[in-house]
Model the fold of this input.
Amino acid sequence: MLKIDILSVLPELLEGPFAHSIIKRAQEKGLLQVNVHSLRKWAINKHGQIDDYQYGGGAGMVIVCETLANAIDELQAPAPYDEIIFMTPDGVRFNQSAANQLSMKGNILIICGHYKGIDERIRKQYVTQEISIGDYVLSGGELAAAVVVDAVGRLIPGVLNDETSALTDSFQDNLLAPPVYTRPSEFRGDKVPDILLQGDPKKVEAWRYEQSVQRTKARRPDLLDE
Ligand code: 6GU
Done:
């Protein structure tokens, strides 16, 4: 069972992503629990303030230490987190290996950044991992957190069945997945490769492996160096 708490300025953004399909079923099966908390609950005054201007000047607000420290202290009072993750474009790039590792934890907190970010002292004192999902900037960490929860949640043992198995996913062995086909066997003159129609499982497996290698060489040669 993996419990994921998420701290967010815009919890509404996270209502949709976990309410469907595989991640919904993971929660129904009791294998995953996702709790989204509004940072506003730990506002520093009755106006609901959670951010302030940055020292040294410049545009953009920064989420204050007190709000985050109080939120984290309260949330982990019953049990300390295995990981406290801050979603930020200057974090370490997320990949399948990071997803695999997080899927084996018991209890994690994900902090979604906004505005100019969070006070550096929270990163120093609390955060154990900083994650980016790629080299582009999102308006906030929520969509990135949804990506991480989805990638991690489906890897928890028991979440996927044989049909949806993660073993044949792209990246699981540093190779991209091979092409797939379904009926009809010919579409607008374009035929399904013969090997797939002949039904020799050994030949199919060898063909798929070869296609994976070719596709990876052409599209993601960097994966073959790893
Ligand atoms: Cl984690 N946050 C934001 N705001 N932008 C991103 C990101 C995270 N990862 C890539 N871009």
